[in-house]
Write a structure and sequence with these properties.
- With about 500 residues, the chain is α/β, with parallel strands linked by helices.
- It has two domains: about 25-270 and about 470-490, Aldehyde Dehydrogenase, Chain A, domain 1, CATH 3.40.605; about 275-460, Aldehyde Dehydrogenase, Chain A, domain 2 (3-Layer(aba) Sandwich).
- It contains 16 helices and 22 strands.
- The protein has helices spanning about 70-90, 95-110, 110-120, 125-145, 150-155, 175-190, 205-215, 230-235, 250-260, 285-295, 315-325, 350-365, 395-400, 415-420, 435-445, 480-485, and strands at about 5, 15, 35, 35-40, 40-45, 50-55, 60-65, 160, 165-170, 190-195, 220-225, 240-245, 265-270, 275-280, 310, 365-370, 385-390, 405-410, 430-435, 450-455, 475, 485-490.
- Strands 16-17-18-15-14-19-20 form a seven-stranded mixed beta sheet, with helices on both faces.
- It is globular, with a radius of gyration of 23 Å.
- The N and C termini lie far apart (about 55 Å).
- The structure holds nicotinamide-adenine-dinucleotide (NAD).
- The site of nicotinamide-adenine-dinucleotide has 30 residues, from helix 8 and helix 9.
Length: about 500
């Protein structure tokens, strides 16, 4: 606690208004020294014996040894999912729903444990994993549990059937949430699963296997194979019926090439370079909160991050001033501290990528601002950053940085805003800030983005589909669209299939 001053007979007031540390205890998490591959309901040793260490990005502490799955392990996991499919797909929808409800409730019961582990292994602030990642992951299981016995009503006269075994590959920015986005609809539709978490953040997926055992999910219905891209590539080449991939556009393209002509279904959730567009009639203070949330939430490791701010020229100066003032109040530091707004960068490799693009921004002539903040010495850190004086052609305006770095551009007319917003290879999300409803609708009609938020940003709901246009991928996750992607229909074409 800060020291209290007594001033005369008045109530005590703190002499210093900075935040005192408020660390979340990590005692709730018990880590194993080493983890195996979760195949057929058991943790198995990788057949080739290869392992790697997963670290905490905040201080590079070694957390555990994790198995690197080889092609033979992936094959065993797919076979286990194939064996389990016969029973799982024939189970009545209401019975499948019971398992999903059970998983959802267990996630809620163990929410604190999951939140601490997510922040420890991934570097995101505990208030985000506690208030966003884990509750939303549970919400997806609840939501899809509700559909499991209503598929005939969700898709009337189309006779929905499961696809079979789904291979699912996820990134490191929302490890448990991406797992939930993929596993919940797959199971609700009667499919079985082999999931490959990202190599830097495998621990919550491994803890989730414990939840599956607690829920008594039949062995083999969900299998988890850890490892780097080699394990992902082996899963793509294995005998699965569908690949659901979330990750970078380059890897997504490689997977699409690999699957061409195989008949396997594919959905791709890839990168983004969203425009957050502020008109001169917007509520500026509210917009500043949305801008900050849009780019500094989860250190900017967000596919739909509002990484390009498009400001109407007449309000450029007051808005950028307000933004800089707000940035100076962001607390950067220990992800396990409940006051932290911006945590650690997920990995050394990602930090390098951010640094490289920021250097490119400087070299191309953009003006950089970073609020004064003391970064911890150990671990991977990057200060919240804003670039002004950015031209549309700069790399920082075109490429996904996937870090806490915002590029500011200006526009004069709504038409120009649309032209600039759509001028990237991506099309995942966008934000519009204005008091006029008609303008919001006009903009939403013209923005080539899968999601458009109006006077808010980064809002998610399990009932709302999410996905991209262009190089941001195809197929949708969430809502009925997300379920559709795991079903086959008698003779009809399906969305994103
Ligand atoms: P990445 O493509 O490097 O890795 C994603 C996953 O793919 C990891 O599990 C990785 O091990 C695996 N992988 C790597 N090479 C592979 C290969 N050849 N074959 C199969 N699997 C392979 O991406 P990343 O750096 O982990 O994640 C960041 C990217 O993910 C960003 O571009 C971001 O925009 C995107 N992303 C998109 C969404 C979305 O919903 N659109 C959500 C989160 C992240």
């Amino acid at each position: 606690m800060t020291e209290l001053d007594r001033r005369g007979d008045r109530s005590p007031v703190p002499s210093d208004w900075t935040y005192a540390p408020a660390p979340e205890s990590r005692d709730v998490v018990s880590l194993q020294e080493r983890y195996g591959l979760f195949i057929g309901g058991e943790f198995l040793e990788p057949q080739a014996g290869e392992r790697f260490v997963t670290v905490a990005p905040r201080d590079e502490e070694a957390l555990a040894e994790v198995a690197q799955a080889g092609p033979e392990d992936v094959e065993a996991a797919v076979q286990s999912a194939r064996d389990a499919f016969a029973g799982w797909s024939k189970l009545a929808g209401a019975e499948r729903a019971k398992y999903l409800f059970r998983i959802a409730r267990l996630l809620q019961e163990r929410a604190r444990e999951f939140a601490v582990l997510e922040s420890l292994n991934g570097g995101k602030p505990i208030k985000e994993s506690r208030d966003v990642d884990i509750p939303l992951a549970a919400a997806h299981f609840f939501y899809y549990a509700g559909w499991a016995d209503k598929l005939e009503y969700a898709f009337p006269n189309r006779r929905p059937k499961p696809l079979g075994v789904a291979g699912q590959i996820i990134p490191w920015n929302f490890p448990l949430l991406m797992l939930a986005w993929k596993i919940a609809p797959a199971l609700a539709g009667g499919n079985t699963v082999v999931l490959k978490p990202a190599e830097t953040t495998p621990l919550t997926a491994l803890l989730f296997c414990d939840v599956l055992r607690q829920a008594e999910l039949p062995p083999g219905v969900v299998n988890v194979v850890t490892g780097d891209g080699r394990a992902g590539a082996a899963l793509v080449d294995s005998d699965v019926d569908k690949i659901a991939f979330t990750g970078s556009t380059d890897v997504g393209k490689a997977i699409q090439r690999r699957l061409a002509g195989t008949g396997k279904r594919l959905t791709l959730e890839l990168g983004g370079k969203a425009a957050n567009i502020v008109f001169d009639d917007a509520a500026l203070d509210q917009a500043v909160e949305g801008i900050v949330n849009g780019i500094y939430f989860n250190q900017g490791h967000v596919c739909c991050a509002g990484s390009r701010l498009l400001v109407q020229e007449s309000i450029y100066e007051p808005l950028v001033d307000k933004l800089k003032q707000r940035m100076a109040t962001l607390r950067v530091g220990d992800p396990l501290d409940k006051n932290t707004d911006v945590g650690a960068i997920n990995s050394a490799a990602q930090l390098e990528k951010i640094q490289e693009l920021v250097e490119a921004g400087r070299a191309e002539g953009a003006e950089i601002y970073q609020p004064p903040c003391v970064l911890p010495e150990k671990g991977y850190w990057f200060a919240p950053t804003v670039f002004t004086n950015v031209a549309q052609s700069y790399r920082i305006a075109q490429e996904e940085i996937f870090g806490p770095v915002l590029s500011v551009l200006t526009f004069r007319t709504p038409e120009e805003a649309i032209e600039k917003a759509n001028n990237t290879p991506y099309g995942l999300s966008a934000g519009v800030w204005t008091e006029k409803g008609s303008r919001i609708l006009w903009m939403a009609d013209r923005l080539r983005a899968g999601v458009v938020w109006a006077n808010t940003y980064n809002r998610f709901d399990p009932a709302s589909p999410f996905g991209g246009y262009k190089e941001s991928g195809f197929g949708r996750e969430g809502g009925l669209h997300g379920l559709d992607a795991y079903l086959d229909f008698d003779g009809s074409e399906t969305f994103g299939g």
